[in-house]
Amino acid sequence: MNGADLALALAQLTAPDRVSTTLPDRSAYARDLWPRGLLGVRAGEGAPHAPDAVVWPETVAEVQAIVRLAAAERVALVPFGAGSGVCGGTLPLRRGVVVDLKRMRRLVALDREQGTATFEAGVLGEHLEHELNRRGYTLGHFPSSIMCSTLGGWLAARSAGQYSSRYGKIEDMVRSLEFVSGTGARYDTSGWHGSIDWNQLLVGSEGTLGIITRAELAIQPAPEVRHLRGFVMPRLATGCEALRRVMQRGLRPSVLRLYDEFDTQLARRSSVPDSEGDETAPHESRLAAALDQAFAHRAIAKIKSLALGMALRRPALINLAVDSLLPRIAGGCLLIVGTEGDHRLADAEAKAIFRELEAAGGQDLGPGPGERWLAHRYDVSFKQSPIFAAGGFADTMEVAIRWDRLLDLYHAVRAAVAPYAFIMAHFSHAYRDGCSIYFTFAGAAPDPRSAPGAVERRYDQTWRAALSAVTRIGATISHHHGVGLAKAAFMPDEHGAAMAIFRALKRTLDPSGILNPGKMGL
Length: 522
Fold this sequence. Notes:
By secondary structure, this protein is α+β, with helices and mostly antiparallel strands. The chain has helices spanning 3-13, 23-28, 35-42, 60-73, 125-134, 151-157, 164-167, 170-173, 199-202, 236-248, 261-269, 283-296, 301-312, 315-329, 343-359, 368-375, 385-389, 406-417, 454-473, 491-495, 498-509; strands spanning 19-20, 53-55, 77-80, 97-100, 107-111, 116-120, 137-138, 174-180, 186-188, 211-218, 220-221, 225-233, 255-259, 333-341, 363-366, 393-402, 422-430, 434-443.
């Protein structure tokens, strides 16, 4: 079936105005926010595998019909939320059709007695939260992409919000799912009770096993009160130990976020115009601002860009200086902590957590740093541009491990990445059994006169080095961004023989192999 015939068939299943084969739409849906893809955009490259068509279903019946057509014609389907993923999880690899679910965005039901709400998968995260807030509830899920990501995307990538230490990740909130398999069959897990949690087979599968169309989620009463605080911990190791002690005492902080010495030092010295020098502004913003200020303060834009580019090409020296000097001169590590909920419980937990941090040697900075973090906590999604404009790249990697290997992981990844990129980290998403480390790195081609593709090669070197260190230590390759294409090659290293089980499940639910081909290491 050629593109024109495919578009006509899709229009008959949906509506003519809900199918597009125009070049602008096809090009837009050929990318997400994977930084490696953005390097191609900067170089003026076209989309490598633009889909044949984009379709916007409005009902689960339409999704079923689209899948059946695709299965019969052996046409690849890529489920699409809002395109904010950073791992290439929604990139078409062999053309086909992108299925954008954003017209499926209704609040289907809210059950106050059970404490659940059911939404269609295409709802944007911020809209979902607003719908709950209007009724006196919260999901408690606040990823930095909340304004430009959907419920379906959260479920596909096992998303974590900034309050996951209190509310859990998205998989902890799911009570049931509706999804369409690769045969076009509709499944509803709400009646599947027993010893197997079927929801967890779909959550995190990135659309390779089925297209999630709605989800029933556990919701919480909107918090009566919120406490936020800043502390300085004397050393990184002391701060990590304090995080562990807080979580293993059974306390429930909404925020528990520790910055390493490099990140803390940049935070203190940066001057970010839209953050008024905010010491807790996001990594990319502070990195760009600090380097910008250091090399070309008040200079014209071209000079600033050149200076930043020069700095990005010399990461090893800067990382060496950081490792040698900052632990001695930085004055400690910044920690942001908060509690929320019923005012009596939140007050009591705040006091207990603050006492724990002070007992670990933490210095109380008052509410200011916490309040500033809250005001700017979503800025990270908009702050990478200066580094890309200077000819470099910036990216983040979120991994997780048990407490006893946490600092081993931190040092191993820093050592592996140091020759290729600036690197810093914060520790967040803390749990009773372990913690996530959120690394930020930025680099460039070693020589500005390098042949085309040099930046991409340096980017790939950085990621291979980082993920090799992660799997060698025994950490997860993803805590909440997903796998997509960026980490697919390391799935066998992480999961070993379990990949055979995953492939068997894929063959069962998607026998034609049409659902999001090539992702998740398949």
